[in-house]
Amino acid sequence: MNVLTITGNLGSDGELRATKTGTNLLNFSVAMSSGYGERKQTDWVRCTKFGKGIEGLCPYLVKGGKVAVSGELSTSEWTNKDGVQFKALEMNVRELTLLGDGKKAEPANAVPTAAAIPDGIADDDIPF
Description:
Blueprint: E1 4-10, E2 15-18, E3 24-34, E4 41-50, E5 66-79, E6 85-98
Parallel strand pairs: 4-6
Antiparallel strand pairs: 1-3, 1-5, 2-3, 3-4, 5-6
């Protein structure tokens, strides 16, 4: 088994889908950049994560957000109708870590935690 860990930015929002058998899957793409200046290159990895609990991840996977993913890497090849061949990197994600970059680390419908503490309560009054 091969295992690869990459860190990069999301190319689009996460897309939650279900297979015909009812298994949930989450699709997203991650950009890997290497090099610098004129030699800078960006490669894209199509990522798929299966399993329970992924519904809660989807709102956090926002285009431009930073993530680290670890899993099995493979390549797929196909030819389009014009005869042009394509190759793509694909990853079956085992682990996903949100590396948040400020506001993109929260889902769009999240309530800020500061709003949960009423005015007039000092930090010393909070037991944790």
